[in-house]
Amino acid sequence: MTAITGVGAYAPRFRITSEAFEEAWGQFQAAGVSEKAVPAADEDALTMGYEAATKALEAADVDPAAVDWLGFASSTPPEAEADLTARLGAMLALDETATRQLFSGSTRAGTRAIWASADALESSATTALVVAADAPKGDPDDGVDHAAGAGAAAFVVERDGPAEVVDRAEYAVPYPGTRFRNAGEAETQGLGVTQYDRAAFTETIGGAVDGLEADLEPEAAAIQAPDGKLPYRAAGAAGVGTDEIQAAATVHDLGDLGAASVPVSLASALADGYESILAVSHGGGAGADALAIEADGEVPAETALEGDDPLSYAEYLRQRGVVTTGPPSGGGAYVSVPSWRRSIPQRYNLEAGRCPECGALEFPPAGACSSCGALEEYESVRLSGEGEIEAVTTISQGGAPPEFAEQQSRAGDYAAAIVALEDDAGDTASIAAMGTDADPDDFAVGDRIETTIRRIYTQEGVTRYGFKVRPAA
Amino acid sequence: MRDAYLVGAGQSEYGAFPEESYRSLFRTAFEAATDSVPRGIEASDVDEAFIGTLGVGGRQLGLSGPAVTEHVGLGGVPCTRVENACAASGFATRQAVQAVKSGMADVALAGGFEIMSDMSSDATKYWLGVSGETEWERLSGTTFSGVYAQMASVHMEKYGTTREHLSQVAVKNHANGAKNPHAQLGFECSLEDAQSAPVVADPLNLYHCCPTSDGAACALIVSEDVVDEYTDDPIRVAGVGASSDTVGLFQRDSYTGVPASQRAGEQAYEMAGVEPDDLDFAEVHDCFAIAELLAYEDLGFCEQGEAGDLIDSGATELGGDLPVNTSGGLKSKGHPIGATGAGQVVEAFKQLSGKAGDRQVENPTRGLTHNVGGSGGASVVHIFEKDAETEVSA
């Protein structure tokens, strides 16, 4: 048996409306989308996945070390080659021996990961974590980009629990040219052959749903939503009404979430208390997965899908890096990738040290104690991720190190602070940290903050991730 | 230990000089220093040299000391490059004093240089941040403007220091720099100008930040055994203090002061047997306006938290009780990183020799120089004192 025992969902804080697109282009090509989520310049599928996964683990009250299977799904992984599950697993403090699988290459990837978790639980796995995160991108004048949103969902899946995956089926048939991205390209495209695209969409969805053996009368239907109209066109094929699709729809407010589209809708439906849910994905090429979920009672869920920071279209292009030129060349200060890697326990997991001589916390835990000067081995202590601002500034244009010039071009001024981070006993260690997720004016001396993980900067083609701070929730 | 004396000091102009190399600027400073020695000095008299430079641009990162001393005819003289970020040549001066006091040298040259203006602004910024704590402080998105702005944020929160106080530092130092022919930004600015400039790192705006500069400076330190060969009006190095600290601000207990400067100041006062009240002028490290205010407190010119009142009172203006940064300071005179500490010694020499022109302090007998590396990872303080109470006309 396979059951969802915890749900997490996340969407970035930025929103752009269909009106803003109309103002810029004279038209908006994503029918049924009234506004959509836009990832901040320091966000990508990995960081959004981290946000959702953290919430799912909290909701399920599962110790990350107990997770023995991790699946990460995205049609836009920040690296086309490299095992991102290693970094995601480390950010979440999973055990190094947990099985990890990466799912990509299609907007079906999210449901493929749920599918694979069910297979794993039917063999040796006991606690699976499925993370689907996506931020599709198209050419600015293409409908794919007009629809493209951003978001993530994560599920803790175990052998027994409140929301059981009672049935699953899949279907695939060749429809080349529907939705694709060639190797080396950053923008997803489609030929836009309207009737052909619709045929691919409804045939695969119908085929997958027809494969289900369970006799379903779903209250909510989480259907793949490349825009706000297409899922409703598949209502007949999926055997549901528009009300059921509407009940689980997130596309109208968040846009096309790619491989996270069905997972976020499923998370939203579970959080809303629907007890019978049909989840059907679709990916270009073309194929579909259908999952039937029956919930018995409340499913623990933590979702953060709201956002109220509006962007103009020009700001949208900046945040997404469409109109910026990338980091300047230079020399001087340099942190090698190996030395960055040595700091990963601090960057991802806030590993501090307690001085055996004076008991003070040291962060990073290396070298002589800055409180008493003792040069001893520290006792490892994990900080909580909560704390207070001790000193802060807002870095304006010209005040940023050149490594951050591209981020500043995209996201504007940012806060840079010294924060006192607390351990469970209430002791603190001070550390420099960049502000994120809020206007720089929202950071002041004495304010409470919490940490999250974001892109810090990219050098030599390698993106370095680590903690930043934001106002406490 | 025997006494050490400052018998000459000189500098190039500070500014942007596309026609000059680091060597040619150093030559200008070296010749100005030797020319300033009252009874003259020969290159062959120099026993040892210490040269401060950060190496911005990487143009001669290795052996940058000998590269300039051999250029001015000091080939064969032992030469060591001293690197302590913005305090490089303040520490080079201290090394020269140590060499002389120890008996290893009778005549020691302390100098410094930097070229910062011949690169793109992006390349310059890569080099500006290199003395910050790299792995954490820089990668939280700060260069020094950000780190000093953080210190300002706490000082303002804790003591009620204001943006206007910061701007007053700029107004004062520009007023002084306008009287210094070597100053890079030798113009006066109004309080309104200094308050309305674009923000760099809040609360610091452009007028609260020193410029990037090309320049060189040299000082000649000699022993008590030979001082009479060079001058009738000896200026004694009465006090020296130095200290180091964590490179990153976040690792310190206090963000409202520079502990290394406090320790360096205490040492220098104790060695000189004087107190802040005994000073007639001071050149302090005002890389950012808040840094000058912190220096007032760290060096005992006022109590902790009262720097805003002190700048308000006018006491640190030319003509006040304790004129600070008569040269214009880093803000107006300029800040060619490796040259700055030796350049402060040049101002002390000029003031104590009565050669400071329109910015001459009336009849000074004792002055202090204060040179900080980074946000306070290194700090060095010197107190110079005229041996005899010879009159200097204002």
Automatic annotation (TrEMBL), chain A:
Keyword terms: Isoprene biosynthesis
Domain ChsH2 rubredoxin-like zinc ribbon: 343-374
Any one Pfam family match given in the protein's UniProt record, by short name: zf-ChsH2
GO BP term, example: isoprenoid biosynthetic process
InterPro entries reported in the protein's UniProt record: ChsH2_Znr (IPR022002), NA-bd_OB-fold (IPR012340), Thioester_dehydratase-like (IPR052513), Thiolase-like (IPR016039)
Entry GO MF terms: acyltransferase activity
UniProt entry tagged with the keyword Lipoprotein: no
Protein name, per record: ChsH2 rubredoxin-like zinc ribbon domain-containing protein
Organism, as annotated: Natronolimnohabitans innermongolicus JCM 12255
Automatic annotation (TrEMBL), chain B:
Cited CDD domains: SCP-x_thiolase
Keywords: Acyltransferase, Isoprene biosynthesis, Transferase
Keyword match tRNA processing: no
Domain Thiolase N-terminal: 13-225
GO annotation, biological process: isoprenoid biosynthetic process
InterPro entries in the record: Thiolase, Thiolase-like, Thiolase_C_2, Thiolase_N
Residue intervals of the Thiolase C-terminal domain: 241-385
Keyword Acyltransferase: yes
Pfam family name, one: Thiolase_N
GO molecular-function term, one example from the UniProt record: acyltransferase activity, transferring groups other than amino-acyl groups
Annotated protein name in UniProt: Propanoyl-CoA C-acyltransferase
